[in-house]
Design a protein that fits this description.
Strand order of the largest sheet: 1-3-2-4-7-5-6
Number of helices: 7
Radius of gyration: 15 Å
Order of helices and strands: HEEHEHEEHEEHHH
Strand content: 15-25%
Structural class: alpha/beta
Shape: globular
CATH topology: Aminopeptidase
Number of strands: 7
Helix content: 25-40%
Oligomer: single chain
């Protein structure tokens, strides 16, 4: 999905906070920030998933579309995402995990991308062990652009989760499955933080 706005300033000049969009943020004493930069009605389900992954331990941020329809206009591409609260949250984080919605409605899968190879590998392993299918990221959704918001933490290496619409719809209606998904990602984060790999990435 391409951006209608090329920066948050462009969006802010045209949209009303509280009507067109809202921002949710909860900063905690954690080196990890879990974000849904296209949350609410922009990429449905991503806010709920990010919040579940953050839990009570990690910092959480969501930029949410509130429009009755046409929320796609609020989609600022990840390498352009410069909402000020998000940038401040990212500055405080060592590693950022972003949750996105992939448009596929037929297949159930998660694409794991980003520059943090160690954490990407752990997340793939934990998701597979919990019964979720993972796929290699396709061009345009790899999360490897250094300017991507997921790579803007102090380590400059984060993770981008692209979750198919079929999986997101399932996670929204099945709270047990949502918890299983979140627990898998959280286990991977714990392994990353407790490993020597955390120092390298």
């Amino acid at each position: 999905m391409s951006s209608s706005y090329r920066s948050f300033k462009e969006l802010e000049d045209q949209e009303l906070e509280g009507q067109g969009y809202q921002i949710k943020i909860n900063l905690r004493d954690s080196p990890v920030l879990v974000m849904a930069p296209h949350g609410g009605k922009i990429e449905p389900g991503t806010t709920e998933i990010a919040e579940a992954v953050a839990g009570q331990d990690h910092s959480f941020y969501s930029f949410e579309g509130l429009k009755t329809d046409g929320n796609g206009v609020l989609h600022i591409e990840s390498h352009l995402f410069d909402e000020p609260h998000a940038l401040k949250a990212v500055e405080k984080a060592k590693v950022v995990v972003t949750v996105h919605g992939q448009i596929n409605r037929k297949d159930a899968f998660v694409m794991v991308g980003g520059l943090n190879a160690f954490l990407c590998s752990e997340i793939k392993s934990q998701l597979k062990a919990s019964g979720f299918q993972t796929r290699s990221s396709i061009e345009g959704l790899t999360g490897t652009d250094p300017k991507n918001i997921c790579n803007q933490g102090s380590s400059q290496r984060g993770v981008q989760l692209e979750i198919s619409r079929k999986v997101r719809d399932s996670l929204r209606t099945d709270k047990d499955q949502l918890q299983r998904f979140a627990d898998a990602v959280r286990r991977a984060i714990r392994l990353y933080l407790s490993s020597d790999g955390c120092q390298a990435y």
